């Protein structure tokens, strides 16, 4: 599960994907387990939920380069595009509205486009978090 955003710019609307992962880590009781993984240039926490092993990932790059971290982690953990869930902001959704998108185009989102390019696939399921337009 990759939370897209601009690392180091916490609290900004474009880093909501990382904020969601922080909350998920707290709910899965692994919030203290974040570690820097230099192999994929990301913060990583491992968790188990409903019998599934999860890799939580927060890229340590700017949004338009998030895909490099996601692709590196996919290789390290032997994951295919359909195994990777992207969590990201969506300007076209009202603040707080959530939607699931099963693959397809990036719809203008630079972080998603970066993942599509780096993984050479658009099959990643996505959790789109509405942030609304300014």
Automatic annotation (TrEMBL):
Any one GO MF annotation of this record: tRNA binding
Keyword tRNA-binding belongs to the record: yes
Keyword annotations from UniProtKB, A to Z: Hydrolase, RNA-binding, tRNA-binding
Keyword Transport attributed: no
CDD domains: PTH
A Pfam family recorded for this sequence: Pept_tRNA_hydro
NCBIfam families: pth
Name the record gives this protein: PTH hydrolase
Organism name: Calcarius ornatus (Chestnut-collared longspur)
Lineage, uppermost ranks: Eukaryota, Metazoa, Chordata, Craniata, Vertebrata
Encoding gene, per UniProt annotation: Ptrh1
